[in-house]
Design brief:
By secondary structure, the protein is of the alpha+beta class. It is built from four helices and eleven strands, in the order H-E-E-E-E-E-E-H-E-E-H-E-E-E-H.
Length: 198
């Protein structure tokens, strides 16, 4: 369930993006000897999307080495507030959190009776949603997603400027094996108060 919360928050941030910049933040980028994942491209349309709403996602990434686990993910989410970058805390496994076993998290989120049960958008493209991930290029042509309403404590995430960084660590070797960062602006153009307060 934690994974679905993470995906929902990231998807809602991305679906509102008016600008999106993704980059490999490994020390030597794609050529880093430890790097196991490199995002080549990602597009989210249309910009912006109203939540709840619909969004089309496309892109491709390279898995540079077989991924079997155990992998830990540290997700850092920062939001601009009064001109300063403020870390979004980890609340109910959403925000700037550390997830100890990504493969187990995926397995518990996307399995039915012990078998993989991937979302239709991934299945349509022949993409896996559980470990292991074999070395190779993974491409998602334009797929349609419904973005749920962000309500309650999470509604304030529906607009603002964000920096998001995800680091995967091979727990067996205590080595970072992937790092992707994104900077994006989300939501409608600001008015005086929303510009002032982020």
């Amino acid at each position: 369930m934690a994974y679905l919360g993470v995906v929902t928050v990231i998807a809602c941030l991305l679906c509102h993006a008016t600008s999106l910049h993704i980059q490999d933040c490994m020390k030597n980028g794609r050529s880093d000897v430890n790097n196991i994942v490199h995002v080549n491209s990602a597009t989210v349309t249309p910009f912006p999307v109203v939540v709840p709403g619909n969004v089309d996602v496309a892109g491709n990434l390279d898995v540079l080495k077989n991924i079997t686990g155990p992998l830990q993910m540290h997700l850092s989410v920062q939001r601009k507030f009064l001109g300063l970058w403020v870390t979004v805390p980890c609340v109910s496994n959403v925000g700037s959190c550390t997830y100890d076993d990504v493969c187990s998290m995926l397995s518990s989120s996307f399995s039915l009776n012990g078998a993989p049960n991937c979302p239709a958008q991934l299945s349509n493209e022949g993409l896996p949603c559980n470990c292991p991930f074999a070395e190779g290029r993974y491409t998602m042509n334009q797929e349609h997603f419904k973005i749920p309403e962000m309500s309650g404590v999470w509604s304030w995430l529906a607009s603002g400027d964000y920096k998001v960084k995800a680091i995967l660590t091979d727990k067996a070797r205590s080595t970072d094996v992937a790092c992707q960062s994104a900077e994006l602006s989300v939501g409608a153009p600001c008015n005086f108060f929303s510009c002032l307060f982020g």
